[in-house]
Design a protein that fits this description.
The protein has 254 residues and is α+β, with helices and mostly antiparallel strands. The radius of gyration is 68 Å and the shape is rod-shaped. It has helices at 57-69, 72-162, 216-223, 241-253, and strands spanning 15-21, 27-34, 44-47, 168-169, 179-185, 190-196, 199-201, 229-233. It has a five-stranded antiparallel beta sheet. The chain has a three-stranded antiparallel beta sheet with strand order 1-2-3, with helices on one face. Helices cover 49% and strands 17% of the residues. It folds into three domains: 15-70; 71-165; 168-253, no CATH class. The structure holds zinc ion.
């Protein structure tokens, strides 16, 4: 019985060595055997010449024992396993590192997404603001155009009404609205006359005093009269209150 590394088949650590001489030649053999399952180790054969000493039994046992204790395939496989385990650990660490890196990148992506969302919201707000400004600007342009048109109309109207305070022939055109105007008659008299329903009414009494408002009998007498307005012009602007007061009182005192 010898102590040894375990039998590769049954795991027993007990083995024995058999040494045999060939009775027909100058050869001797030795082999290790498992004591439990009788598995056989590598075969050892030694030859010797007739005049040489035969290898000793101790030598043959030592060689067989050494071969039994040597497990090159098993050692290579164990080494291979150890290498694989080692590289597996390296890869496992690499996987862990990659997972950590992925987690970092995912966190960064989340941050970027938030930033992107925020930027989008800002852009939307700005676009809405710009749209509102455009709309406001458009409305203001429209209002300006309206006011310009109104100014043009008023300017044109004022120009045609006043015509530099020159007499306007009735044959050419009449005032656009009824009211009081300065009139020049075919008899060469100047006074204020009323335009009623688009017709000038010559407003004077029998005493040839000009009146400031048309009355029914004057309208009747004027309709068939010989005196009629040939030219007209708008009344000048009214004087302000102060002027009116002083002028009126001055005339009354006379
Ligand atoms: Zn065995």
């Amino acid at each position: 019985m010898n102590e040894s590394i375990p039998c590769p088949f049954c795991g027993s650590e007990d083995y024995y060595i058999a040494v045999t001489d060939n009775p027909f030649s100058y050869d001797t053999y030795s082999t290790a055997h498992c004591s439990k399952c009788h598995a056989t180790g590598p075969f050892v054969a030694e030859s010797y010449l007739e005049d040489e000493p035969k290898p000793t039994r101790d030598y043959m046992e030592a060689v067989a024992k050494e071969k039994w204790q040597t497990r090159p395939i098993e050692d290579a496989l164990n080494k291979r396993i150890a290498d694989l385990v080692s590289s597996n650990m390296v890869m496992a660490k690499g996987v862990l590192d990659l997972k950590a890196r992925i987690a970092e990148l995912e966190a960064e992506i989340d941050i970027r997404k938030d930033q992107l969302r925020e930027a989008k919201n800002i852009l939307i707000d700005k676009k809405l603001h710009i749209d509102a400004l455009y709309e406001e600007g458009y409305k203001l342009q429209q209002r300006i155009a309206e006011l310009e048109a109104e100014i043009d109309h008023l300017t044109a109207h004022d120009a045609t009404e006043r015509q530099d305070d020159k007499w306007i022939p009735v044959s050419e055109r009449l005032p656009e609205t009824d009211g009081q105007y300065i009139g020049y008659t075919n008899t060469g008299l100047v006074g204020t006359h009323w335009l009623v329903d688009g017709h000038f009414v010559v407003t004077y009494s029998c005493e040839r005093n000009w009146l400031t408002t048309p009355t029914s009998w004057i309208l009747e007498s004027a309709s068939g009269g010989d005196v009629y307005v040939t030219h007209w012009m708008p009344l000048p602007e009214s004087p302000n209150d102060t002027q009116t007061d002083s002028v009126v009182y001055g005339k009354e005192s006379d």
